[in-house]
Amino acid sequence: MQLENIVTKITQQPEIHAKWLNTLSMMENTGARKISACEHKKNVNLIILKHAAEEARHAYYLKKQIGKIDATLCPDYNNEHLLAPKASYAYLNSLDIEVCRYLKNELGLNGEELKFAAYLLVTYAIEVRADEIYPIYQDVLDSIGSKVNVKSIILEEEGHLEEMINQLKQFSSNWEMHGQKAISIESNLYQNWLIELDKELV
Question: Whole-prediction pTM value?
């Protein structure tokens, strides 16, 4: 199932398009809150602060884009203002849980070490996906001459991915193996999310 086809359908209907932006905003906001929750009380570096701040900014930016469609739509993240709310809310939470389970079983991590390792792998997998989703979305927006745009997010997500790879290299010499496992887990959840999105558009 191709994301381009789904996004094309979404952008043809203003109310659905607003829900899509709101759903992306909610997911970015969830990511920002998860990053903050993974922070050590004292050992917080500049990259983590930057990343949490930028994810929160993305959530705000996407929310503001709804105003280019209709400012009265999607005032909050309640289910009626989201696309595939159950799957959308479960997406990051399930990824977090499954990556934590993998890290416990494979590396025997717990406590602060587990939190930080999960942050690295979950964020890496999400950034890989974001580098696919936002450019496809922007291409569709360009093709229909929409006032909505996500170009600034695309640039920042590319930087995030590079930062995550650098942190993963410091974390483990086997970072690529662990990263591929996280991507594999994410891929299954992503496919389920697409299925649920498509159901709402039928």
Answer: 0.94
